[in-house]
Amino acid sequence: MSLSPVMTRAAGLDALAAFLAGPGADYAAARNTDRGPGTVPTTSALSPYLRRRLLTEEEVARAAIRAFGERGAEKFVSEIFWRTYFKGHLETHPEAWTRYLAGRDAARARLAAEPGLRRTHARAIAGETGIDGFDAWAAQLVAEGWLHNHARMWFASIWIFTLRLPWELGADVFLRHLLDGDPASNTLSWRWVAGLHTRGKHYLARRDNIREFTQGRHDPAGLDEHAACLDEAMPPREGPLSPADPAPDGPVALLLHLDDLHPESLPLGGARVMRVAGLTASVDGASDRVRAADAAAMADALARAGEHFGCSVEPMGEGWAGDLPVVTAFAPVGPSAEALPVGCSRIRRVWDERAWPLSNRGYSRLRGAIPKVMAV
Hints:
The protein contains 17 helices and five strands. By secondary structure, the protein is an alpha/beta fold. The two termini are 33 Å apart.
């Protein structure tokens, strides 16, 4: 993956085309192998575009099926649906997000009070633990804002079970540095590795697995391969899916946010967009690289929206919408949703409307319904 991918829809479409014409055909067989920095990734590396919906999950899944057929694209499409599943699961379990934030803040307080924990944490984020592989991934995370998915799992497992660091601090490091850092995918993936998402089932990084799937590049000794999973007294409670709003008829002002930057495909019904503005709510403590990517993606989306709707692009500020009702894409749990002004009409895409109610339990329920979700 490029150290600085261009965060525009056009660049995302080019990356999708390159993946489908090249490594996509071997995705199912090669996806677990991490060849390391400076090589062609075995995954699509489309997640920075998907995270901001410069590309939508639906169009990427349909493009893969057109290229490889339903059977040939099955594994790749299933992985796309994991992103959708995590979004829907956090929507029905928002307490997982608020607990993460509280746990992160509590762990930060521990760093100030516990010198031993502080030293271990400092070595981990600096890539100075002496653990082969882990230190390289820590450096790559900061240098590139990117890690292969398998490396993310190994990193998280070593962080939790070998270094014995609070998982919330590791999730925070990822969210601040990853170009595709997403509140739902990141929070629930760390919980899954820890054994909290699927209670009693955790992911343990193993030396032989790392050696095999880094093609011998890393061979870490001293991993705790027998640690017990983490536990919590009560898992996050399930709640009802927040309702979306119908798009009002007539003139509206459209507010874009970082969780959905493809305004051209929003189901706006009879609404007529007269002006558009952007709300850029990056995650707390985001790196300069992530903030720059967010700003570039928003600028691209605003330019496309202005051209597509033939409307004015306004700076985000008080009174930007005038007397027009404000419409926005439904923002899932996270910084965008927290920053939206009161009174917006929040419109949900058909994809999410179909998939999120099936994401309240384990992934298998949604996976079995993929044909239904994708039905035209």
